[in-house]
Amino acid sequence: MPSKNKNPKTKKTPKTEKPPKSVKGNKGQKKREAKPKNTPLAKEYTFNVHRAVMGLQFKKRAPKALKALRKFAQKNMLTTDVRIDTTVNQFLWSKGIRSPPNKVRVRLSRRKNEDEDAKEEMYTLVSFVPTTEFKGLVTKIVDEDQK
Question: Which of 18, 20, 45, 138 has its CA 20 to 30 A from that of 83?
């Protein structure tokens, strides 16, 4: 059976396999190891409340700050169960519903769930770290027993 290609000059030649191109930006870099989600861990963060409540109407600012803090903890600690300590709640509500503090220093600690009927094996506890000044503070890993 004749080929469907009517032009005899264009013959199909078998293509040779080329090595895959390297991903742009990953030259010479090692792959990051996957972080285990089920190990206890504690980190101290500075959470910018102002970024979360800027532009909101006054009567929704403090509740929105708590929701944003909960979302921040879920993202950084990879758990959906987030428990906020009462001291953090009191600090965010200390200046009223209209004007929560601009920044807060918190310790996020991922812990094992003791409940037998819990959906997840880990939960995150958000606790307050008192500070006088936020300049120069960076995220740091903290020992669980150190308070």
Answer: 138
